[in-house]
Amino acid sequence: MTKVSNEMKEEGRFRFIADAMPHKMWTSGPDGRANYYNKGWYDYTGARTLEELRIRIWEILHPDERKIAELEWPKSIAAGNDIEIEQRFMRLDGEYLWHLTRVCPQKDENGKVIMWVGTCTNIHEQKKALEALKISEQHFKALSNNNSLIIWQVNENGIITYVNDTWKNFTELDLDAQLMVQALDAVYPDDLRGVIEKLRNDFLARVPMQAKFRFRKMGGQYRWMLSYANPIYNPDFAGYIGSMIDIDDQERAQKATRQLLKKRDEFLGIASHELKTPITSMKASLQILEKLSQVELDPAKIRKFISMANKQVKKLTEIVDDLLDVTRIQSGKMQLNLINYLFQDSVKDCISEVMQYTIGHHFVIEKNEPIIVFADRTRVEQVIINLLSNAIKYSPDKDMVVINIEKNGNDLKFSVTDFGIGIPQDKQSFIFDRFFRVHESSQNFSGLGLGLYISAEIINRHKGKVGMESEEGKGSTFWFTLPITN
After folding, report:
1. Is 357 exposed, middle or buried (0-12, 13-18, 19+ CB in 10 A)?
2. In Å, what is the CA distance from 138 to each residue of 125, 135, 141, 244, 416?
3. Low-confidence ranges of the chain (pLDDT < 50)
4. CA 173 to chain centre
């Protein structure tokens, strides 16, 4: 029930988006050395390892573009500036395909680059479409209407004279006298002024156009788009032929990367605090013990400080155990030692253990059906203790915790109810996520936000379910089920 971050969920979303998106993506350290490539790069190059791909990226870059990259990339690293450049990369079959490469620096509050995020968008079809106009307009239209790119054309006066079927399907806007007004109206309001100014200046200068903005598609959803266009001459200036490509997934992936970095930093800060507190306390106890050993041998005083030191050792052990459990879960190495046992006996032992660390709370068992389960007793008790401990922690002004053990069809259902602070409605869907802390800004509720995540994984591996109900200010009920032994 505590939160450092929603890191696992965000990390999972980032990985999923990065590997599913049609763009090739990578990240590099401040020195520009790549430390991550998404699945698109491995599929495109045939590389199997990160080290192999680092080398192969430069080998498959077209010689003309490699010369430019070898000059511009070091300059960008030194200056901390964005890069946007068109490059050809050789596919496994030996064909070079055009890509739009964009590399952006992630900087800290002092403006220092802490990482680079890069993407390569395949614009080969876009290039082919632009070249097709030189062959024949008929060929171009046939190609563009069977193309996934949004393709458009304006004349020398800036009036739209052609849009392909993809445009019509994406926007539901057809070619008419008001199309330019309608198209600009579909640009996200915050982006509109910049887009108009950029396109107007490029049009007057007769230079290639490139702009990134949010655009409203059919149904009202705004998507990040990249618009790219070249001036055409026939032989005089005849306007522009251009296209738009949906880069919303790419933008979300970059945003997820930035958020992941932020969550990582938050987690490291909380973890450092959680580890430092017991270490500092334990160090103080040992220093006092050292002084006492030099002047007196009063067993009562010595036992007091030994007890304090042992308490902090226990905290450190719990933190380390939680981190190790997360590692085992993620690697699929958490083993279960299943046995048949009476569940009530297990609950009784857990209550006895938790009662050693609380004075103001007592447990009331309302339903206590005798049920045999086939489970890993140690792991299930880990879950029970976590739920009982949380119930105490988050009901500091109440003295009662209610427990129920009952049959629910073919399952055992165990629940713990407290009458404490409860959980806000908007936080409840994240409660079993890794590193999630409801009260992330409060020092009154310590922890790394791992307990409920680990508990949910343990129960899931027993083919059970976990859940909760809560109302802010009135308390919470956490429960889980386990299959009953036949």
Report:
1. exposed
2. 17, 9, 5, 20, 72
3. 1-5, 440-446
4. 35
State how far the Cα of 485 lies from the Cα of 71, in Å rounded to an integer: 69
Residue 484 per-residue DSSP state? B
> What CA–CA distance (Å, rounded) separates 419 from 274?
26
Strand, coil or helix: 332:
coil
Helix, strand or coil, per DSSP, at residue 360? coil
My answer on whether 203 and 319 are in the same domain is: no
Residues 114 and 140 in one domain: no
267 domain residue, yes or no: no
Distance from the Cα of residue 419 to its chain's centroid: 33
Supply the range of the domain harboring residue 92: 24-122
Q: Are strands 466-471 and 400-408 parallel, antiparallel or unpaired?
A: unpaired
C-alpha triplet 260, 261, 262: angle, nearest 5°: 90
Q: Do 316 and 350 fall within a single domain?
A: no
Of 264, 299, 331, which closes a domain? 331
Q: Is residue 3 part of a domain?
A: no
> By the 8 A CB rule, do 251 and 224 touch?
yes
Burial track 390-412 (b if 16+ CB lie within 10 A, e otherwise): bbbbbbeebeebbbbbeeeeebb
Q: What angle do CA 42, 45, 51 make, to 5 degrees?
A: 65
Tokens coding 408: 């629910």
CA 461 – CA 329 distance, rounded (Å):
10
257-278 tens-digit pLDDT? 776 666 666 555 555 555 555 6
Domain count for the chain, please give it: 4
The residue type of 330 is Q
Q: What's this model's pTM, rounded to 2 decimal places?
A: 0.43
Neighbours of 111 (CB within 10 A): 8
Shared domain for 117 and 198, answered yes or no, is no
Give the pLDDT confidence score for residue 293 in this predicted structure: 64
Q: 47, 275 in Cβ contact below 8 A? A: no
Residue 135 maps to a domain: yes
Q: What is the CA radius of gyration of the chain?
A: 31
CATH classification of the domain holding 140: 3.30.450.20
Residue type, position 246, single letter: D
For residue 61, give the DSSP letter: B
Among 134, 127, 215, CA closest to 167: 215
